[in-house]
Specification:
The chain has four helices and four strands, in the order βαβαβααβ. By secondary structure, the chain is of the alpha/beta class. The protein has one domain (2-107): Hypothetical Protein Ychn, Chain: A.
Length: 108
């Protein structure tokens, strides 16, 4: 079974935005060490992270190249006007399927 990471906002944690982006970048760089990390699911403002101007685009591309599925919510992309630079646009059925088959879900 896979570990799934959920990004439901465009930073890690609450509080200072600059700090939240910095620690999110560090988390993503190091998350390749997570055993069986199969996918990262993005919804709500988290979909901003897959945009071409994302501050963590390099980290996400590296994860995608290593086989981690990047799964942004299509409805959320449309809501925020985001065109994804990485990942495959999904729907709620796909997100539910990813979460349902996960042995572990980590929500940032």
């Amino acid at each position: 079974m896979d570990t799934i990471v959920v990004c439901n906002q465009d930073q890690m944690g609450h509080g200072d935005r600059e700090l939240g982006l910095k620690i999110l970048g560090t988390f993503l760089k190091k998350s390749i060490a997570l055993p069986d990390c199969g996918a990262i699911v993005f919804y709500n403002s988290g979909v901003r992270l897959v945009a071409a101007d994302s501050p963590v685009l390099i980290e996400l591309r590296a994860l995608e190249e290593r086989g981690v599925d990047l799964v942004p919510c299509g409805t959320c992309l449309e809501h925020y006007g985001v065109q994804p630079a990485v990942g495959t646009v999904s729907d709620m059925d796909t997100i539910i399927d990813e979460l349902g088959k996960a042995a572990k879900v980590i929500t940032l």
